[in-house]
Each structure stands twice: as C-alpha cells, then as structure tokens.
Amino acid sequence: MFWKKRRLKKTDPQTPAKSIVDLLKQLKVNPDFTHFHHKGPHFSCWVSFMQTLVDVDYVHRDVFPYLYSNQVHCLSDVQTILPFEEIIRTKELSVIQSKLLEGFIVIQESENKPDCLIIPSIKVQGRQVEQTEIETSILGSHEGFVESIDTNINLIRKRLPIPQFQIKELRVGKISRTRVCVLFVDGIANKENLNTVVQRISDLEVVSLIDATMLALHIGDNNHSLFPQFIDTERPDRVAGALYEGKVAVLVDGSPNALIMPSTIVEFFAAFDDYFLVWPIATAYRLLRLFAVAFSIVSSSLYVAVLTYHYQLVPKDLMGALIVSRSSVPYDPVIEVLLLEIMIELLREAGARLPTKVGQTMGIVGGIVIGTASVQAGVASNILLIIIAMSALAAFITPNYRMATTIRFIRFPFILFAEVLGLLGIALCFMLFVCHLIKLTSLGRPYIEPIYPLRVTDMQDAYIRLPFNFQNRRPQFLRTGDADRTNPQRAREKVGKQSPDIDE
Amino acid sequence: MRRKVMVGVLSCLLLAGCVPTHIIDDILIVEAEGYDYIGHNKVIGTVTMPNFVQSGNQGGQGAGLPSTASLIRSLSVQTYNGKSLVDRLQSEGQVAIQAGKIRLMLFNLPMAKHGLSIQMSFRNRDPDVPRDLTLAVVDGSCKKLLKATDYQTQIPVSRYAQDMIMQNNTQNYPDSDLSSFLYAYFGAYMDPFMPIIQKNGDHLEMRGLALFNHDKLAMRIPDSKVFVFKMLYQNFTLGVYDLEYRPGRHIALRNVKTSVNYKVRHGNSASPDIYTTIHVIGQVRQAYPGSVSKVKTPQVARIMEKGLASDARQLVRKIQKKGIDPLQIGDKVRSFTYHFDGKSWPERYRHARFHCKVSVIIQQTGITD
Amino acid sequence: MMAKANPINDTHKAGPMAVFFLTQTMQIAIEFVFIQQLVTKDSQQDAWIAVLLGGLSTFPVMWLILRLLEKERRYGQADLFSIQRRIFGKLIGSMLNLIVSIYVFLYSVTYLRSLIELLQVEIFPQLSTLVFSVLFCLIVWYIVMGGFRNIVGVSLINFIYLLPLFLSNVFVVPHAHFSNLLPIMEHRPQQIFLSFFMNTHVYVGFEFILFYYPFIKKPEEAKKWAYFSLLTTLYIYLIFIILGIVYYSQGEVQKTIWPTLTFWKSIKFPFFEHVDIIFSIILLWSLIPLVSLCSWVLTRGIKFTFPKIKKKYSLIAILILTIVTAYLIRDGQQVMMLTRLFNIIGFIAIYCYIPLLFLCQWLKNLFTGETA
C-alpha cells in the first residue's frame, strides 16, 4: 500500500511553473543558481543565471559594466547599450525557462514581473577537437566530432562553404529537450528523405535523448532488426562527403556521432580511406572486407556442420590434421566452438571495458595464453583455434562498430542451425537473413540496394570502387535533386581529345 | 503471443528435425575395400580405415584414459557376393563405419572372372561414393595386400595404392576411375578395363591392364603393352616409352605426347574399315651411345613408327578375337554411321578391318648431340 | 463489365527487369539436375535438338501471352483470374480459376517435393519431410508477407546464387566425349517430338507472367526482358543437355536419375571434395522464390474469388496445405509420377489452353465490339 502510494507520488510529474515567481522559487533550491538584486544609482534590477552554465568571466567583463553605467535607466536602455547581436526581450515563461537552463542571463526590473531581458553568455565546455578514435584512418583528415553540437556543425560547415547547406533544428525529449540538427544540402538531398527524417524525429516520444546512436535506434525502419539501418560516424569528412552525395545527416547535442541516412548495407563496409587510394587497390580492399565478413559469419558454423555431418567434404589431406587435432577433444564440435566463441567474446568485452593499456595486456593474455592452454588441455582443437581467431579478426575489419557487433552476433544462430541440420541448416539460416535483408529498408529505401533492386550504375561505388571519372553521377538510390555530380559535357570537353595513335 | 507460438514451434521443429550425426573423429572412415572370391558365390571382404592418430596429444598432460589411442585399422569378413561390406561389418566396428570417403576398390582375379555386376550396381547407386574412386584388380589376395604391415611406406596402404595408380594414370596407364569404368560398363559397344596391381615384397607394382567383357575379366595386357593401349584409347602428354630399336639397344623417351584420330568407313557393312591416325611426339632422355643424332633420329623414329603400328594392330586383333571392345571402337563406328546397325555389331566387330598409321617425331635429343 | 479491381499501388510494383528474374526462377527450378534422363530416353544423342525446339517453341507462346495481356489492359486488371472471369462469365470463369489454382498449387508442391527427395537421397536420408517443409514454408511465409517486391528480390538473389552451378559446366570439358553427339539428326521426327513432349515441363513456368503482369512497372519494357529470359533458359538447358550427352554414355545416362548431380560428384576443389553436397544445398535457393510466387498467386486467386478473405490468412492456409500435400507424397516413385503428370498438364496448359484463351479473347472482343 505504502509502496504504491509513494511511487505514485514520485512518478507524478512536477507541476510546471505557472509564473516567473514559481520558476525562481523552484530554481532557488539549486546551489548553482544565482539570483540577486542589483541596485545601481540610476537603475536597479534582478539578475539571475545558472552559475555552472554561464561564462562568469564574460559576465563580469562584458555585461555588468554596462548595467552599472550611467546611461542605463530602464530595461530598454540595457538592450540598446549592450554590444550583443542577440538580446531577447520576452514575457513568455517557457522561453525564459529554457534559455535560463541553457546558460543565458535573465535580467528583470522587478522580481515579480515576467518582463525580462535574456542575454546569451553560454560557457562552452568540453573536449577539444581531437583525433578520431573509433574510425581511425591513416590517410585523410584526423578530426573527429566532439560532444558539442556547435563545434560539430562548425567542423562540417568548414567543409561545405555553400549557402545551400542548411540545418533544421529540432528539440527531442519530453524533459530533456535535446537539440537535434538535421543537415542537408538543399537542391541535392531528396525532399522526401528529408521530410521523413524530420517527421520521424519530431514524432518521437521519448523522455530524453542522450546519444545519436540512441536516436538511430528510435527512428530506424525496423527496430527489431539486428542490422543497423543508419551509418553512425565520428568523421566530419565522411559526413561532408555524404551530404555532397545527397544524403541527410543528423547531429545530436552531446553526442560525438553523426548519423548518415539513408544508407545501404555495403556502405557499412566501406571505409572512408577507400576514396584516398587508387581504385584497383581500394576495390581489392573492399572485396577483402566483404570476404572477411562472409568468412567471419560462416566459418565457425561451417566447422560445426562439416565435422558433425559432412565428413565427405574434407579433402583427404586435411582429414588427418583435423582428426588428430580433434581426437583429444572430449566434446562435440558445437560445444567446442561455442566455448571458444564465448571466450573470444569475453576477451573482446573485457578489452573494451578496460583502460587501453590494460586492454592490450588482456588481448595478449587471452589470445596467447588461454588459446594455447585450452588446446594443450585438450578442450579445443588447434584448427578450430585458428578458425575462431581468424573469424574474430575478420569481424573487426568492419569499419563500423555497430555493424561489427551485428556480425559477431549473427554467427551464433548459424552455429545452432549448423548443429541441427548441418549445411542445410546453414543454408536455411542464411536464407532467413537474406530474406530479412531484402525486406529491410532504410528511410524507406531498399537496404541492399545495388543488388536489389538491381541498379548497375550504383555498383560502381559499392562492392567495388571505380575511378572517380566513372562516378560522375550521384547514386540512383538517393533519388537526388541533381543526378549529375559534375557537368558531363564540360568534363568531357576538358579532358580533350584522345591521342589518335602512339606518339601523336 | 503469436511470436511466442512461433518460437515454440520453431524450437520444437529444430529438436525434432535432428538428423544422426557423423562426427569426424567418432566414425571409422573406410578408405579401401577389397573383395576376394572364394567360390560358391562367397567372398572375403576386407575394409581398411586410415589411422591418423600418432603419438597422442602434443604437450598434453594428465589425461586419464589414452583418448588418442588408435582406432582399428582393418576388418575382414567372409560373406556372400552382393552384400555391402560396410553394412556387414557395421557390427564389428568400434564406432560407426562410414563409406563416404572410400577411394579404392580392389578385386582379386577370381572375383574379376566371376563378374562385378553386383558390385558395380551397388557403387552406382550409392550417393555417398565419389566418382573419382579408383578401381583395380589385384594379382594375388586383396586381403593380404590390404592387411600387410610390411610396406616400406608408413602411409595407409589405401592411399599408397591409390596414389600409385593415379600417378600411373598421368603417364602410361589410361584413366580408370569409377566414372570412366561406369561409362564403358553401361555404354553400348564398349567394355571397361581396370589396372592390375600386385604386392611384390615390401611394395606394390602395376602389372598391366585387366580388360573386361561387360563385367567379367576377359584378358590381360602386360605392363609393356599398356602404352600402345593408351595411345589408341586417348590423347595424353606425359607418356614414357622405351624403344628397343635393335636387340639390346634402348632409347628412353619421356613426355611422350600422342594424339589419336579415328575415321570409319562402311560402318554398316559386314566388315567396317577403321582408320586410325596417331601422332607421337617424344623427347629423348636416355639413349644408347651413338643411337641418336641429327641424322639418326629420323631413322629411329621410323623404326618406332613401325613397331608401334604393328603393336597396335596386334593388340586390336587380340581384342577383336576375344570379342571385347575396351577401345570403344564400336562407339566410334556408331558415331560415324547413320542408322548404325547395333544388333549385328558384335558379329561384324570381329571382322572389322583395322588400319593404323603412326607418325613419330622425336623432338629433343637432350643437351648433347 | 466487371467491376474494376482496385488498382495496384505503384510502391508495390516492381521494375520491368523483374520479369527476367521471375521467369528464370520459374523455369529453371531444379530441372537442370535431371532433364537429361527424361529427354534422352527417346531420342538419345539428338535430345538436344528436342530441347532446342522446346525452347524455341516458348517464344511464340510468350508472344501470345503478352498480346493477350496487352489487349486485356483496356478491360480491367490484366491477370489470368480477371481475364477468365471476363471472358467466360462468373460461373465458368470461377471454375477455370479453380483449375488454374490447382495447377499452380501442383506446380509448387511438385518442385518442393522433388527437392526434398533430392536432399533425402543426397545429403540426409533421415531428413523428415514434415520438418523440412515446415521450416521451408516458414521462410516462404516471411517472404510472401513482404509482398511481391520481396519475391522479386529473392528470385534475383536466387539467379545470382545459381550462377556457379551453371558455370560448373566447364569442368566437363576434360571428361567430355564429344563424339557422343554424332551422328546428328539420326532420329525420326516422332522420336524427337516425344523428347520434346518430355521436356515441356522444364520450360513450363514462364506463363506465370499471366498472374503478376499487373505488378510490373512499364510493361512495354518488360517484353524484351521476358524474351531475353526465355533465351537464357534455352541456353542453360541446352548446355546441360549437351553436358549429359557428352559426359555419359547413353546406357549410363538413362540409368542415372540426377545426371547433373552425379556429374558434380566428379568435380574436385583443393578446399573441399564432394561438391555435389554443396551444390544441392544451393539448389534450395531456387525453390524459395518459386514456392513463394506460387503461394502469392494462390492468395491473389483466393482474394479474387472471395474478396472477404484476407491474404495474410489465406497464405497460412495455403502453406499448411502445401506442407500436408508434400508430406503425403511418400517416396521417389510417387514424386516421379507427379512429375510425369505435371508434364502432361503443363503441355496442355502451354500449348493448348493459352492459344485457346487467346482465341476466346479475340472472339469475345469481336462479339462485344459488334454489340456495343
């Protein structure tokens, strides 16, 4: 009884402040809220601000001197005299409240009157722009996003110095009212995509929004799908590239990630470095990555299937090696595989949680000591250890972290199916995933796009990367406002005639 | 709710759908089968399983039972012709016996004479059997050959024998795996053949070809004449030929490349004419001193042409007399003749006229003249 | 005049290329694994002529179908169910629709069951028909719930996955006896016609465009894809029949139930042996879009006849019926009988009924044109 009552009381939302007096009273509880009466010779007023949000030096240096000056007699005088570009004079309570909590200074003539002046004086605190940590690259820009949305927009705008680059600001979260910015290039980005994004974000009913990836989970097309539907990146250059391509980007205040949408599955396997390498090499690495992903998903389940059901598939010369390494293992292949897979997952999780330096030690301890020890103790076979280690390595090749986790996860259903029906089970499981991918959409656009619907022109930047002069059209997938990247005729003219013969 | 039902149905299915497992180290993988005929439709069957496990677990400590001890290597049983050996021996296996990797089938001479039709229909029906299974006739006892432990080599005898036969197939012996045997066995106007192997002391050796009349052994070709047979049977590139151009004087040819071409005239007459043109290109590796030079090489080649042509004619005459057709001449006549009269062919085959033209080019004579 | 069915939303339609992949899927299901035995029975080495003729004969039929559908577009929804109802009236039309539905149902069950038979022989002798068909139908359910575009997607993927199987032909070259193809044209026309009749059912399947035509965007462009698909099918079957003739002797090919599969047993890669197991599992792929499309057509048929029944419920009923029917077919003999039966039905459907329908439509249009 009491429990229930108490809980009910707690969940009861706090009554919103009805007047400025209520608001001030509510805020006064906080120790960092400063509210004092200023009494000057000509003018007296009430000043209130959140000490922790406001740049105090700045206030002392640039705001108060004007308040104390002789020219000020009333609030309008303050407004004219202060050398700021944006001073709001309002009576609206909601504006006052939100501005106050963002780090603005509020100046009132009398404590009880709602008429007040709001002066911006936000203290920007946070990391400096640093090197990217998750999506590292050897070539190209090393700047990464930080937690401040303004810095992030600055980083992107530097790369898009055009007036068509536009930002739509939205507020998300019933309580948090987090700033969310939708970035796009007007005239290139598809209007429908943009509207869908804005619609989905503004329709969101959440209490708070802490990170961009959380937003991605909320506005995805299928929230139960294992596959991430929007790319999250911490590279401003990648976002800029995507915007030029005609995509829409979303930034969330407080999150060092931008979301790029819509995206197809192959984009998750493309690193931004690919564009900095000559096309045959870039193509080779992309194919390598896709092969690695395929290997990572099916290798351990293939091991289970072949060793449990299809001994015929093993070539005769490998047979000996397999049997010798298996013969001292007391478990079925599936148990053995699960044991090692879970061990690798443990290592990965421990490595991610521990501080960097300890993490490295962890890797060595796990990889070398536990691996060899488990083989020597006879609970796992040598060959399996190689396979598992390779597949773990292959999973980390994926440039996108969320995709990498998906890939590491989906091998478990494969292993189970392989145990039940052998290769047939793998095929059925594979089918399920492929059918799921065919169904999946990203902002209503097909997720496995260059494959289905088959669009050959989009293949040039999917599994392979053709040279840039082939890529003079934007992807069909995005249905951009302007399909051509460059003016094809002018480009052709500039290349000039091809030489008619050798040495001519 | 619906989701829960789905999950339930799915897991039930997965559990019910389990099929028996064959875990790779918990089965006996048969690699060779041998059949010795002992009369009255009885055979002694022998199977061998390779034993991969060596000295145990490297660096492993303190396992109670020797889990890495070897499995049984061979089993042998007396049974009737036509019983699947794997099924018969199942009760004697330490763990389940599986025939999916079988690579060698051996028959002794009496078995081959008795006929292999039952065994072949077996092999053709079994989906587990690979098509590159090697077949061979054993001069002697299959059981002794498979069970002997006195070979020089340590690798299992099944592999040893198969490797040896495969190696010879690239050289002088014609291709004789299961698929080509069955091709000739089921095909009209053709008969199959197998190589003959023999255990000689501590090693195995090839002893020529066994030619079958449908499923029964009809005649043998000695090792020395196999080159001629292969030359008439198929094109090949890595032959080895030893030419005795004068008694006691030899020239050894390597990488002999031959190509054969058949033409048929009067295919439906009482005695069809079969024209064979054979081109042989060889490289000399060893020669009796003074036997090869720029002048002498063509002469030697002429001698070789004559010798090969007469050998070929002799061989064909022999098989014609026996009424068997391992060279698939009948099929060639068929392919050259519209409305080929197949019924009278066995009779006409005996009277077919065989014309053979061999041209030999000796290409290289080594680095000395 | 019939009430116009509610027009299909553009977002549910697929591009013209879909015709190519769907026709491929429906024509090349798993027949290329066993056509050699059926076709060479009567005309031995000349069987490839029969296959060639069979393939060529599909072109005029396709032309008829496309003309039929184009003409029909003026009168309402251009699919077979609507056409039959319009031409033959409600009662006879519904009867015919029922017969057509049975044909479609039989189509999916025959293929599903022959695939299960193949898997049981080749991979898991103990594989339960029931369990496998339930698992299979669950996937089919998942696809069909996504609608027509998903089926097209799956058939596209199927085409990609089947490519290595078609390319496996090159491995026959070292073992080929090309003289087996000689002498050419030895057999009498009757024998070749018998083979031609036997291979009808390998070509059957392209007529499904009668059902999904309204779901194709830009149907004019789809025409060329339809013909191109027929050409591809013809090419694939021709290659496979030649493979069967040159790899096997005549006596052997007629003893072998799945000649292509047996041929795969002789392919060896350094990484793995027994390619046939892997390839027969890939064959699974070709069945998924086939059964999906058939079930989709059936749901549409039911919806057309009984507009009250929702497609998602009828789909479940159809799949359960498929499972039960597949389960009732006991062994390989019955599968063979079903295939034979299906051959006759397919022959009638393609070469008799479609021209007849075309004629009826022409007469009906003539008649109504005069009276109107």
UniProtKB/TrEMBL annotation, chain A:
List the taxonomic lineage. Answer: Bacteria, Bacillati, Bacillota, Bacilli, Bacillales
Query: Which residue windows are transmembrane per the record?
Result: 287-309, 383-401, 413-434
Family label: Belongs to the GerABKA family.
Record keywords? Membrane, Transmembrane, Transmembrane helix
This chain's source organism reads Sporolactobacillus spathodeae
Give the protein's recorded name: Spore germination protein
Position of the signal peptide: none
Question: Where is the segment annotated Disordered?
Answer: 479-504
For bias type Basic and acidic residues, the affected ranges are: 481-496
TrEMBL record, chain B:
Q: Does the keyword Disulfide bond apply?
A: no
Q: How does it sit in the membrane?
A: Lipid-anchor
Residues covered by the Spore germination GerAC-like C-terminal domain:
208-366
**Alphabetized InterPro entries for the sequence:** GerAC_N, Spore_GerAC-like, Spore_GerAC-like_C, Spore_GerAC_C_sf
Where in the numbering of this chain does the Spore germination protein N-terminal domain appear?
Answer: 22-198
Q: Where is the signal peptide?
A: 1-23
The UniProt family comment states: Belongs to the GerABKC lipoprotein family.
PANTHER family assigned? SPORE GERMINATION PROTEIN B3
This protein is called: Spore germination protein
Tell me the lineage of the source organism: Bacteria, Bacillati, Bacillota, Bacilli, Bacillales
